[in-house]
Amino acid sequence: MAKVRKAERRPPLNKTHKLKRQDWAKKYLKTDFSKVLWTDEMRVSLDGPDGWARGWIGKGQRAPVRLRRQQGGGGVLVWAGIIKDELVGPFRVEDGVKFNSQSYCQFLEDTFFKQWYRKKSASFKKNMIFMQDNAPSHASKYSTAWLARKGIKEEKLMTWPPCSPDLNPIENLWSIIKCEIYKEGKQYTSLNSVWEAVVAAARNVDGEQIKTLTESMDGRLLSVLAKKGGYIGR
Predict the structure, then answer these.
(1) What mean pLDDT, rounded, does the chain reach?
(2) Which of 93, 134, 203, 229 has the most crowded Cβ, counting Cβ within 10 A?
(3) Which string of DSSP letters, residue by residue, matches 74-108?
(4) What is the pTM of this model?
């Protein structure tokens, strides 16, 4: 009949944000999205999103006991990308590392470029469009110049509108993975164990699921335009 759900959190959109989202949609409306690599980071904690869990129990049964820890017991930062029907990664960010421009670029060098991108053909590299959001470590002059030296510049580096997680299909992948690793209120006892769960869950996401996400982009752009830059459903 219904499910208990936690309200989604989204940054507020002002008039400027909405106009930039519409401009972005118009710019990329005729793009071949099978050539776009959608990237993002996700943080997973030992206790799940905000340590929050609830569910049904039978009459007379006791509620299960959950560990109570500060900041969800700590967590792991994960980076991944999706393109067409392929998952790139996931790659684990070294514990204790906080991304700034330099550490972000070094991370991409050690993972994305060395372990995946360099194996691709010249024609693939020529046509691929790299998407990242506007996090300071991503959008800085240092990172932009570094990516340009790698050949990812101008039309090969997608511009991104502000406050737009709903437009990035990899956010749906994160939801799939989190639902799997935290099902039935599961908690973890170590950072390695939650990372292993992420890797296992990612392996269970097949190419058809990823393709469904990447092929949703035409509809997302049309929805943004129909809503005059407002948020769309995911």
Answers:
(1) 90
(2) 229
(3) -EEEEEEEEETTEEEEEEEPPTT----HHHHHHHH
(4) 0.88
